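Posting for a labmate who doesn't have an account.
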Amino acid sequence: MASLSLHHISTTPFVRRATPLNLWTRTQKPFSIRSQSAPVLSQDDLKRLAADKAVESVKSGMVLGLGTGSTAAFVVEKLGHLLSTGQLSNIIGIPTSKRTQEQAASLNIPLTTLDLHPHIDLAIDGADEVDPNLDLVKGRGGALLREKMVEAASSSFIVVADDSKLVSGLGGSGLAMPVEVVQFCWKYNLVRLEGLFKELGCEAKLRLAGDGSEKPYVTDNGNYIVDLYFKNPIKDGFAAGKEISAMEGVVEHGLFLGMATSVIIAGKTGVEVMTK
């Protein structure tokens, strides 16, 4: 996997701690950025720290994949500021959702598409879960298909997240692992997906629009999302992803495996850059 020219990256292996609140430590002291002014950082503060660290890897002239979600929004905001102040130039972005496209356009970030720029220098995006292998669950914001297309086309993929996203195994947070499905016979696939992971105590639910109605959530691609909730972590992410993808009517799943070049995690004591 390609390495990034991030400063102070340590590639020493991770050692699992006993405490579940901090899943990783290193055999050497990790690089960190400590807050000098705020002893207690909010989750948004942590996301912004991770985003700012990731943007340090952006150079003028790059084609960038622009992620979706609350942490990725801080990345886009920072890029807009650096462009407006002349600290970066000749940047062009490929957004992974309509809302990222709207945010980037409002900040005067030039935009393009994969059709016109099939090679991306760097993608930066958030994650919903990060395991010790740097495999990910993504897509709770509903943009998993476009995120995966853009990030798969990128030479480097930096993930930014706060430490609440760390899990010992994918699905371990008990929150949604999304699967994008076509609208046609969505319930048929919901039942099949739930049955596929029956031994993991999986419950499948159709994602709703969240506007107080019972209308299904519809992705930017015109599809539905079936959210899978696991009582136990997925044992083999690659096998699970292969079985999900083999189902007719499944468009994409939220397991992003072997894709992250590095993960920037912001915690209460600072920012750590994790690489394989």
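Reply:
Got it, the structure tokens are right above this. The helical segments are 43-55, 70-84, 98-106, 144-152, 186-196, 237-245.
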